[in-house]
Amino acid sequence: MIARDGPSLRKSFPIPAVRKIIHIDMDAFFASVEQLDRPELRGLPVIVGGEPKSRGVVAACSYEARAFGIHSAMPSGRAQQLCPRAVFIRPRMARYREISQEIMALFHRYTPLVEPLSVDEAFLDVTANLPGEPSATRLAERIRADIRAATGLTASAGVSYNKFLAKIASGHRKPDGLTVIAPEQARDFLAVLPIGKFYGVGRVTEQKMLARGIRTGGDLLRHSPQELMALFGKSGRFFHDMARGIDPRPVEPVRVRKSIGSETTLATDIRDLAQVNAVLREQVLEVADLLSRKQTGGRTLTLKVRYHDFTTITRSRTTTEGFFDAADILAHLPRLLAATEAGKRPVRLLGVTVANLYDEREARQRRGRRIRQLRLPFMELAFQGKK
Ligand code: DCP
Ligand code: MG
């Protein structure tokens, strides 16, 4: 179970036999903050997001608004139709960020192994924890109480032995709920879990699964890893394991990953530009692979060159469209390389890095947008040609 392939897993991370993971997720976060700061809004259907008239969308909505079928990402106009008396509020990101920092700091009183996933949620590995509390369930209750005392807001928590199950659990009794999935309960829990709720199953994969009669985790169990890999590539193996409650991903505390890169010290110094290009191409593919695994992208591409005498230079380019795949990187790398003396001076190290990474939500939105844009390849090429 631990010997999984793939460089995305930290290689030498010792995974204890049984881990205790808590996933915390604030309830109706932006909307709850508005209700906290403006008590007259409590108990009302509150929608934080864009104006109904301006083609805006719902960022967050209070549970009172959800009773009308309103949910995040729904066009605000539609939300207004569903609930004409809903109160629309423009987001106040600075305020949400402030509270976010407060709760993240609070988590660190329990364990240094805190992995924030977004402004309002985080994984905590509490296998060993600072208060020395043996029960992860009691700890989760304490954390929820602390959040409430510190901020006046409610959070839901999920407790289990891996990240995927902990996250599923936290959503199980929202709002203000706590769910524990013990190892012996995992199979039953997953067997009836709708396939769309599985980690890594987005809209497209969900449709593909449904088309093959895979509706739940139980259905997933009936497919071999080979079948699933034939259908879903590398993710197939992951889905196969997930259905069995296997998810060895560690809680990664230093989630402030600022960049994704590949760097190689060459066996011998090289001067030949074709060889330099060959090394760079490998690195680009590796970086693109990592970006795709992490489902992210970044704004800045950096090429690093160390010459034989150890002088090191970097050449960077920042674009508004960002770097998500090999094509993005290859479109700009030659120009960066041309600004170095590679090919003239012997080179001992090469590195390609994408930095200034988008946060999870923005990366998701941008990647989604790009998939739609692929339908217009000619237009894209035309734009690129003009730059
Ligand atoms: N958010 C956003 N756009 C989205 C989804 C979410 O701007 N499409 C913002 C607003 C949310 C916050 O992120 O308040 C946290 O997202 P969650 O998915 O955790 O949703 P909520 O906290 O609002 O509700 P829940 O109680 O379901 O967690
Ligand atoms: Mg939330």
Q: Mean pLDDT, nearest integer?
A: 90
Fourth-tier CATH superfamily name of one domain: DNA polymerase, Y-family, little finger domain
Q: What is the CATH-assigned architecture of one domain? A: 2-Layer Sandwich
The shape is globular
Report how far the terminal alpha carbons are from each other.
49 Å
Ligands in the model, by name, code or SMILES, are: 2'-deoxycytidine-5'-triphosphate, magnesium ion
Query: What pattern of helices and strands is seen along the backbone?
Result: EHEEHHEHEEHEHEHHHHHEHEEHEHH
Cα-atom radius of gyration: 24 Å
Which structural class do the helices and strands define?
Answer: alpha+beta
Please list the strands of the largest sheet in the order they lie side by side: 5-6-1-7-8
Classify the fold: give the CATH topology of one domain: Dna Ligase, domain 1
- How much helix, percentage-wise, in residues? 40-55%
Total number of helical segments? 15
Number of strands: 12
Which parts are unreliable, with pLDDT below 50 for 5 consecutive residues or more? Answer: 1-15, 377-387
Task: Tell me about this structure.
The chain is of the alpha+beta class. Among the domains are: 29-93, MutS, DNA mismatch repair protein, domain I; 187-243, DNA polymerase, domain 1; 259-386, DNA polymerase, Y-family, little finger domain (Dna Ligase, domain 1, 2-Layer Sandwich). Helices cover 41% and strands 21% of the residues. Strand 10 and strand 11 form a beta hairpin. Helix 4 packs antiparallel against helix 5 (136-151) and helix 10 packs across helix 11 (235-243). The protein is globular, with a radius of gyration of 24 Å. It starts with 20 loop residues before the first strand and ends with a helix. Mean pLDDT is 90; it is low at 1-15 and 377-387. The protein binds 2'-deoxycytidine-5'-triphosphate and magnesium ion.
